[in-house]
Structure formats: structure tokens, C-alpha cells
Amino acid sequence: MDRLSQIKSPINTDLEQFKELFHTSLDNSNPLLKEVLSHIKQRKGKMMRPILVLLIARLLGKVTSSTLHAAVSLELLHTASLVHDDVVDESSERRGQASVNAIYNNKVSILVGDYLLATCLYQAAFSNNNEIIKVVSQLGQDLSEGELLQLSNVSNTEISESVYFDVIRKKTAALFAACTQTAALSADATPEQLEMARLFGEYTGICFQIKDDIFDYFDDREVGKPTGNDMREGKLTLPAIHAINHSDDFSVKEMAVKIKAGTATVEEITGMINYTKKNMGIEYATQVMMDYHSKAISLLADFPDSEIKRSLVDYLDYVVDRKK
């Protein structure tokens, strides 16, 4: 049994219910919409976020109808954000599959993304929990704000670690935190448990994003994405930020400004990748990631040993150990 299958084993029945509800939520009779939604259904994701929702709900109580609708709502919001992101980033591929905008066009992509957002709120309403609806709605705001913060940061010549964390908290960490918050709410958790769940999700999301950023410094055949892709988009992530801010070489900072401005050549981007690797950028980012991993693990300390708790620990380990 592979690691992910082992993590999912205590919630396999719950996951099947989630999948059925998710696919049903994407049923539509409009010919074009049905075709696009069918394309989206074919994506083979790892279901990292629904797994987290179900595990936290089981840890704090049980999986209910409210839990399942919350998980579907968040997965729809996540999917909508990816469809919109592909338009913004002019991406032609998503998880090895042609993006919606590549097959159809930007107009169709935006409208389908809007439909997914509306369906997300519709599913949240079925949770019959106003607090869950608030968390989902707040997440929609956070994701948009995070994207805008990232865009505005591209034109900022300051190379800031704090801004980097502001961005990933609004984007990736907010999504994981919403998963754990809604799970706790669906399980009628205490205020203390709710805060524990929120922090667990936030720390997990930060680990997840730092790991993704580390992937960008290695060959695409190993990790499934183009090396230096972030830099080509004008993004400097934690490994490079650390290496640049600990350099006395003016030419390095000059190159960083060019990358953010989108004027760097392929050779300059390759040079920055190599500089980051040689100057402990990867090691630093890995250490920060493992610090957040430890903080997340510590939040589970007061829970008795159980299959669910072991799956959550394995889930965290998987996030930091994964190869793509």
C-alpha cells in the first residue's frame, strides 16, 4: 500500500461519499458547460484538501452531511481559483492536462470559474451552518487578496520574506486552514479545538507551499513542472529571497530586480537558480518548512493515539516528503 492510500485508509468510505457528492455537484444539462465540467472532472488530483477535512472531522468527532458539503464547497472554490489562475497566468496546462482556457478560450474559462464559485456557495449552504458559510466566503476574499498582493509585489523592488509569507498565508495556507476550520465546525468542536484546527491547517498549508517552491529549483522531469517557472513569472520565493538577502554582491540584487520586472534572460534566471542552490537557499527553506511541520505535529500532542491521529501525522510527513 502506498503512503497516500495508507493515509486515506481510515476515511475510505467518507472519501467515496465525497467523490459522489462532488461529481453530482458538477452535473449540468447545458451542452457547453457540461462539456467543460466533464473535462474538469477528469483531473486526477490527490484530493489533499478533502482528505484533510475528513481526517480532522474524524479526529474531533465524526463526518456528517455538513462535513461532506463543506469539503465539496472548498474543493469547488479551489477548482474555480485554478481555472481563473490559468487565465491570469496564461497557462496551457494543469496537472498534465490541457487547461480550460487552452481548449476553449478565456471567456469560457472565466464564466465556468464563476459558475464553480456560485456552486461552491450553494454547497456551503447545504451544510446548514452559518459559520461554515462565513469561512468559505472569507476564503474567497483571501484567495483574491493573495493573488492581488502577489501581483503588486512583482513591481516592488524590495525583496521581503515577510511579504512572501503574507502572500502564502492568504493563498495556500488560507485554503488549508479553511479545510480544518470547516471540518471542526461540522464536528461541533469547542472554541479551543477550533483554533487548534485552524492553526494545524495554516501550518500544513505553509509547509505545502514551501515544498512547492523548493520544487521550482529542480529539473522538471523529477517534479513535473518547469524549472524556474516562478522566476519566469516574476516571483521570488523563500529559497531565493534568503540567498539574495544574505548576499553582499550588488549584481545579485540587480538580477533579482530584473527577475521581478520580467526582464531577466533565461541565462540570468538559470544563474539565480544556481546562486540560490550554492548559497544555502534550499537548506534554509527546508529548515523553515520543517519548523512549521514540528509546530503542526505539536498541536496533536494532547490527542490519544489512534488510527486517525497517525494518518494526520503521516499526512504532514507526506506534505514535506513528497516528490511532486
Describe the fold and architecture:
The protein has 324 residues and is mostly helical. It has one domain: Farnesyl Diphosphate Synthase, CATH 1.10.600.10. It has helices at residues 3-8, 12-25, 31-41, 48-60, 65-88, 100-103, 106-125, 130-154, 161-186, 191-215, 220-223, 229-232, 238-245, 250-261, 266-278, 281-298, 307-321; strands at residues 93-94, 97-98. A two-stranded antiparallel sheet has the order 1-2. Helix 8 (130-154) packs antiparallel against helix 9 (161-186) and helix 9 (161-186) packs across helix 10. The longest helix is centred in the middle third of the chain and has 26 residues, at 161-186.
- Number of β-strand runs: 2
Which CATH first-tier class would you pick? Answer: Mainly Alpha
Question: What is the correct CATH architecture?
Answer: Orthogonal Bundle
Full CATH superfamily name: Farnesyl Diphosphate Synthase
Biggest sheet, open or closed, and with what strands and sense? 2 strands, antiparallel
With strands numbered from the N-terminus, the spatial order across the biggest sheet is 1-2
Helix content: over 70%
**Mean pLDDT, nearest integer?**
91
Overall morphology: globular
Order of helices and strands: HHHHHEEHHHHHHHHHHHH
Q: Total number of helical segments?
A: 17
Strand content: under 5%
Cofactor: Mg(2+)
Protein name: Octaprenyl-diphosphate synthase
InterPro entries: Isoprenoid_synthase_dom_sf (IPR008949), Polyprenyl_synt (IPR000092), Polyprenyl_synt_CS (IPR033749)
Family: Belongs to the FPP/GGPP synthase family.
Observed structural traits:
324 residues; mainly alpha; Farnesyl Diphosphate Synthase; two-stranded antiparallel sheet; 17 helices; 75% helix; 1% strand; globular
